Amino acid sequence: MLNDELILYTTENFSKLVEEKHEGDIKIILHFKCSDDREDYISVYQKIAILNRNSPVFSRKIYHYKLGMAIPEDFELTELLPINATDVDYTTNMIYFTIDFNQDFRLGYKGVTDGKGVFSTRLSSLKTIRAPYRKEFSITATDDGFPKLNSTATLIVTVMDNVDNLSGENTSPKCNGAIGKSFNILLLLIIHASLHLN
């Protein structure tokens, strides 16, 4: 105590309290022994509030899917190009993904990579999407901290006309065998080229 001021400092143990990932109270009891054999106690409480300071971060600013054939209903585009987000706040236990209201695509929770805090979503088609098609959407990642913070990325889906099909047969993603494999290779080549051009 100096000049009637009591100054308290944190120690290394304080970091352990913060790492417990929950709010709480610090309670300090001061025990005074007076010269006339009297004793007294003062209790000091300090509320600890874990505040959310960082928004989720998408792995890309733009997710552009360029496909050379119709997209069948319930096809998962994120098998070709994953949509992920991370959050450096250790209090974040979940990231929720949302997309602009539309009648073509939906998002669903895919999971989290343990230890890395990488949250993934699933982008699936609600119906068959035929060429020519090009639409742009906003996808939002919102964490569960306090206060809740979010960030936005751009999603573009393009279905192109007149992509040569060597087999001349139906090569939708749901086909089996060599035809399905040819289609998947074609899709990967188109997406690979798109990623390098953007």
Automatic annotation (TrEMBL):
List UniProt keywords, sorted A-Z.
Calcium
Which SUPFAM superfamilies does the annotation name? Cadherin-like
Q: Which GO terms describe its biological process?
A: homophilic cell adhesion via plasma membrane adhesion molecules
State the GO CC annotations.
membrane
According to the lineage, what is the superkingdom? Answer: Eukaryota
Give one GO term, molecular function aspect.
Answer: calcium ion binding
Q: Where is the Cadherin domain?
A: 71-175
Could you identify this protein by its name? Answer: Cadherin domain-containing protein
What's the source species for this entry?
Photinus pyralis
